[in-house]
Specification:
single chain, 252 residues, alpha/beta, 2 domains, 4-stranded mixed sheet, 6 strands
């Protein structure tokens, strides 16, 4: 049997390497990680720029803005591409803020709205342009067709990139913090955190990050490894499989 790869452990708090054989340390209930407000401000700022770029693209389409050195279609595509970049970057900042300070599930609509702000911003940044492009009877047909296709593609790309496939609620975060008061580990490209460095799911990872649960959630690892949960008999925490129940633990 091949020996497990030697792991390089990096602390989430300090970024410093920690010896693999170091003893695990218990931690107190975590406080919020960082401040979500700068991320939210950055997201809104970028979405505002995206809206301005959409208006610029509309003005170019209607001939209100021209430039001698570049044709109309090229200018529209440049504006839409920059629009897309602002939408996606803003969405990533917003998702980061949501993982630092998640919304509560008590109000289902507000929870949905809070976790889909990036998708909504993407829709606002492209759908009006598409509608105006399709209804503009004075624009060149070729320019209008290509510009519409580019905007629709940007809408789809931005929507997928802005959607949070791994959302977390305030209740889930607090339940995990209360249930797990030990150091957890996660891999560079994994989507879950582990309570055991020796978990078989981490065997292929040479570099791991260690921290507390809140740091793991802030790093977009919002679910606990189901194998670690059953091994430690942790219940009431969302895992990569499902919510681990007392019945699941009893079966082990």
């Amino acid at each position: 049997m091949a020996e497990p790869k030697k792991k390089k452990i990096v602390s989430a708090s300090t970024g410093e390497e920690v010896q693999a054989g170091a003893k695990k340390k218990n931690i107190k209930q975590a406080k919020p990680v960082g401040n979500s407000m700068p991320y939210r401000i950055g997201a809104f700022a970028l979405w505002a720029v995206a809206l301005v770029l959409e208006f610029i693209a509309i003005f170019i389409l209607f001939g209100k803005i021209t430039w001698t050195f570049l044709p109309q279609l090229t200018l529209i595509i440049i504006a839409l591409v920059l629009d897309l970049a602002c939408v996606i970057i803003g969405a990533q900042l917003w998702k980061k803020a949501n993982h630092i300070k998640p919304a509560s599930e008590k109000n289902k609509f507000l929870f949905w709205l809070w976790n889909n702000m990036g998708v909504i911003a993407c829709a606002v940044a492209f759908i009006p342009f598409v509608i105006l492009a399709l209804t503009n009877k004075n624009a060149d047909k070729k320019t209008k067709a290509i510009a519409t296709v580019v905007a629709v593609i940007a809408l789809l790309i931005g929507g997928v990139a802005s959607y949070d496939f791994n959302p977390v609620s305030e209740e889930q975060q607090q339940a995990a913090i209360e249930a797990i008061n030990t150091t957890v580990y996660w891999s560079p490209f994994g989507k879950v955190y582990h309570t055991h460095m020796e978990c078989s799911a981490l065997n292929q990872s040479e570099t791991l990050t260690k921290g507390n649960v809140e740091e793991a959630i802030a790093a977009n690892r919002t679910r606990l490894c189901s194998f670690c949960a059953k091994k430690d008999e942790i219940t009431g925490v969302v895992t990569d499989d499902k919510d681990v129940s007392d019945a699941d633990v009893a079966e082990e």
